[in-house]
Amino acid sequence: MLKVGLTGGIGSGKSTVAAIFRLLGIPVFDADVAAKWIMEHDEALIDSIKKTFGDESYLGNKLNRKYIADIVFKDKYQLEVLNNLTHPATIKAANNWMEKQNAPYCIKEAALLFEAGTADNLDYVVGVQAPDTLRIHRAMQRDNATRQEVIARMDKQIDQTIKMKLCDFLLNNNEQELLIPQILEIHSTLVVSG
Predict the structure, then answer these.
(1) Do residues 21 and 187 touch, judged by C-beta distance below 8 A?
(2) In degrees rounded to 5, what are phi and psi of residue 108?
(3) Helix (H) or strand (E) run with residue 30 in it
(4) Sheet holding 124-129: strands in order across?
(5) From CA 191, how far away is CA 120, in angstroms rounded?
(6) What integer pLDDT is reported at residue 112 of this predicted model?
(7) Which of 32, 68, 69, 107 has the most CB atoms within 10 Å of its CB?
(8) Do the bridges between strand 124-129 and strand 169-172 make them parallel or antiparallel, or are there none, so unpaired?
(9) CA-atom Rg of the chain in angstroms
(10) Per-residue pLDDT tens for 90-126?
(11) pTM value > 0.70
């Protein structure tokens, strides 16, 4: 079975693409959802986050996302610290999940595939790209965030042009080209390869 990564910058439409792959019967691991769950259920990780960022990091048993975001999206070093705490557990969960799948291929959806160094363990990577203005608009709408907040998050990711050059397949989610035919073409290639 092939292990395929799905990546793209904030607001590119990875979740939409992942949902379409799921409709095609392809199992998809959402690294962001998994990381959020792990950050609220892994006691060792919770302790590490509290020691690093303070007890305010949690409100009861829930991660104080706004508090953490205010810290890490203003300071690249702090974001790296948080990623170094959370990525190992999330990567382990993804690898365990992938080993249990039974399909021609499975997908790991993650914004930071290259940044986390996990792309090397995958057979292919599919990149989702969109113009920056559209990505900013989508992220502002989805997250109820300001333009400045979205741009600050974008600045913490690898430049979209560089990221897309590292991918094996590209999807243009620009609201100008039909997305589903692009996905079906990649799906057919991966089913044959798997």
Answers:
(1) yes
(2) -110, 110
(3) strand 28-30
(4) 28-30, 105-109, 2-7, 124-129, 169-172
(5) 21
(6) 85
(7) 107
(8) parallel
(9) 17
(10) 999 999 999 999 999 999 999 889 988 889 889 999 9
(11) yes
